[in-house]
Amino acid sequence: MKCPTYLFAKQFKTIVKNRQNVYFYELTYENQVAAKLFGCDPQTMGVCHGMDIPYVFGLPLRLPQLFQPEDVLLSRQVMKMWTDFAKYGKPDEVWPQLLDNNVVKVRDLNPVNTTRDELYAEVLSLEVDLIPEEFIIKHQAGVIHKI
């Protein structure tokens, strides 16, 4: 995975070590109606950035005629995950941190493919694409910027 959000999260966790909890997910499931609303072509673009927003705000619950039953389930799970993270600082009790014993663990949000989490952690642990230290500036406020 090469998206800037993921690279930032990996670098941030590497720098803060155990002083901060860092969790990460990737939405690999896409509803065709939502894709059209966002102007995404899953065949050429994959799952577009921001495709989790309809699930975060419960769109499948408000407009169930446009969504599949698994969309409603996913929306409830995502809303609970975001709420629990805001309330308790952790999405759920079993969610691993992004870096766990130097193994990258990314939660796959996909109600259709629920067996991908363990495999995904193994594949991503092979990546060593962290931003080189010479490109990082640390400010006193703890903000990290890439040059």
Automatic annotation (TrEMBL):
GO biological process: acetylcholine catabolic process; choline metabolic process
DNA-binding recorded as keyword: no
A single GO cellular-component term on record: plasma membrane
Key words of the record: Glycoprotein, Hydrolase, Serine esterase
MF annotations from Gene Ontology: acetylcholinesterase activity
Domain Carboxylesterase type B intervals: 2-117
Gene3D superfamilies for the chain: alpha/beta hydrolase
Domain of life: Eukaryota
Pfam families cross-referenced by the UniProt entry: COesterase
InterPro entries linked: AB_hydrolase_fold, AChE-related_enzymes, CarbesteraseB
Family of the protein in this entry: Belongs to the type-B carboxylesterase/lipase family.
PANTHER family given in the database record: ACETYLCHOLINESTERASE (PTHR43918), CARBOXYLIC ESTER HYDROLASE (PTHR43918:SF4)
Protein name: Carboxylesterase type B domain-containing protein
Lineage of producing organism: Eukaryota, Metazoa, Ecdysozoa, Arthropoda, Chelicerata
